[in-house]
Amino acid sequence: MGSQEGAIGIFDSGVGGLTVFRRLVEYLPWESVIYLGDTARVPYGTKSAGTVVRYARACANLLIERGVKMLVVACNTASAYALDALREDLDVPVLGVIEPGAASAVTSTRNKRVGVIGTAGTISSGQYERAIHRLAPDVQVFSKSCPLFVPLAEEGWTEGDVPRRVAREYLGQLAEQSIDTLVLGCTHYPLLKGVIAETMGNGVTLVDSAESTAGVARDMLGAAGAGGHNAPSYQFLVSDAPESFARVGKRFLGCDIEHVEWVDC
Amino acid sequence: MGSQEGAIGIFDSGVGGLTVFRRLVEYLPWESVIYLGDTARVPYGTKSAGTVVRYARACANLLIERGVKMLVVACNTASAYALDALREDLDVPVLGVIEPGAASAVTSTRNKRVGVIGTAGTISSGQYERAIHRLAPDVQVFSKSCPLFVPLAEEGWTEGDVPRRVAREYLGQLAEQSIDTLVLGCTHYPLLKGVIAETMGNGVTLVDSAESTAGVARDMLGAAGAGGHNAPSYQFLVSDAPESFARVGKRFLGCDIEHVEWVDC
């Protein structure tokens, strides 16, 4: 496959970003989208800032070579560590998932107590907290990293006893902080929405960055491409194991993925 | 740090191989050892054969440049996929963990029913089964991949309710196969020995490849270096996040790791 001028480029460390892809297609159905999953180097969430920046640059460059007009960094960890570097490097607009997620959280909270969960990298970067405080300095933020949520979602263990107990272990203390809003600060976490909601209780609104990010992308691009005559196309690229991406990705996308191309990035 | 001529080189995708390092030092206390953890690309267990071979070659070349006299592939997935390629590439002896683990299993079993657990990659490669059948064609092998065991061990959740339930989920069926020997076919799994033993019941011997691999290394090298006047030295290299390696590695090694060097491999 060659380049596809004018598509939206989106990348993630693996399959998780498909939750963002899905919302993008829903919100901007006339846009073509190229998705890149860096499955050879997944996960990013446990790796250092320097390494994540290096990997994010490689992903971004590959998508730029394919002629994308906008870059969506679907991975929270890459958004936390690499967004500034990518914005400096690139001539196209670069959108991460943290700012939109933070904005949604600020809109959602009534009691000004917000929880944020994510990978070790995202949480230790403090980026959600900073983004929330830029918008609303008086909001109190309670953060917690939940490393096992990613392998649980990848393994497809999203319901039942094991994820429920893992959720209780990670979120037990957070559930006692009287927060009214919880940011799912990792693209894998929407798959665990059920057990997370159950653990946090009824009064807590879960904010899914995927949705808010797609909303911001729509605001940025406007309806310029709507009503065009070309049918949009979707491409899926991975740096390893296309078959496994297609299989696991189905759970994230909610439908079959027909063709996945291997790329060396 | 420069090269260290004549040391044993050992690599793993991350910290797991420290269980092998520990046994090597115990069995060959007069040998110097260089350990490399490919923490920038961990885990290997979920990645494709081609990608694992590429990473294993990079690790091996780095250790060869440091002058090692022997290479131990501590990672089961890398042993499953890359051992032949490395043996072809290199002039030093290359030892994996699968053949020693298979030999121990064959020695241990009385009823000729052996279980093998490992990563998705190790199990789907079928290498343990082949290695066992080369030694004892009449042994029946029952295999099961247990992907969540690695993140559980890395997270330090090795006891209690969550690992116990995960173990029951993965091993429930295996426990009904009347096996008398179970190979822990991943260097992370010895940390979960407690819950694995509990789930499998009293009659099942757990084979830890770390121990058998160190035994084979001792047989290969002999006592040539024993009684020498030079004190052995130990070096730890990682491709990402040295501090986190030192912290998590402590659990695997059973003692502090003082200096960890970052390398680009």
Please specify the SSE layout and strand pairing.
Two copies of one chain form a homodimer.
Chain A: E1 8-12, H1 18-27, E2 33-37, H2 49-65, E3 70-73, H3 76-89, E4 94-95, H4 98-108, E5 113-118, H5 120-125, H6 127-135, E6 140-145, H7 149-155, H8 161-171, E7 181-185, H9 193-200, E8 205-208, H10 209-221, E9 234-238, H11 242-253, E10 261-262
Parallel strand pairs in A: 1-2, 1-3, 2-9, 3-4, 5-6, 5-7, 7-8, 9-10
Helix pairs in contact in A: 1-10, 2-3, 4-6, 4-10, 8-9
How would a textbook summarize the main sheet of chain A?
6 strands, parallel
> At the first level of CATH, what is the class of the largest domain in chain A?
Alpha Beta
What's the number of domains of chain A? 2
Helical residues, percent of chain A: 40-55%
Average pLDDT of chain A, rounded to a whole number, is 94
The Cα radius of gyration of chain A reads: 18 Å
* Count of discrete alpha- or pi-helical segments spanning 4 or more residues of chain A: 11
CATH topology of the largest domain in chain A, which one? Rossmann fold
Oligomer: homodimer
How is the largest sheet of chain A built, in terms of strand order?
Answer: 4-3-1-2-9-10
The proportion of strand residues of chain A reads 15-25%
SSE order of chain A, as H and E?
Answer: EHEHEHEHEHHEHHEHEHEHE
